[in-house]
Amino acid sequence: MNSRKLEEELAQKLTEGQMEQEDTKEAARKRLPIKTEIRIQAQIDPVLEETRRFRQMASEVDDRYAKYDRLVNESKDKEEQ
Asked: How confident is the model over 16-30, as pLDDT tens digits?
């Protein structure tokens, strides 16, 4: 086959049928990296431990976290039983 014939055949195949159009929003979403989330189950609560250290150094004026302490202590008691 000569090159003219091959070019005509290629042009015909490229122009046949309907041209597929990709949704630009969907294509952009597919190019984004996959979001990953890593969760680690901790044996201790780091916020609770830090709060305890601060309370050893100073006392609270208004006891606003006393309710939280009671809830934590109650949950520990239930876990131990």
From this structure: 877 677 788 888 888
- pTM, two decimals, is 0.33
Find the distance separating the first CA and the last CA of the chain, reported in whole Å. 87
Count of all residues that appear for the chain in the document = 81
DSSP 30-58: HHSPPP-------SS-HHHHHHHHHHHH-
Helix, strand or coil, per DSSP, at residue 59: coil
Q: Give start and end residues of each alpha helix (H) in 16-45.
A: 24-31
CB within 8 Å of 60: residues ≥ 6 apart:
66
Question: What band does 81 get if pLDDT is binned at 50, 70 and 90?
Answer: low
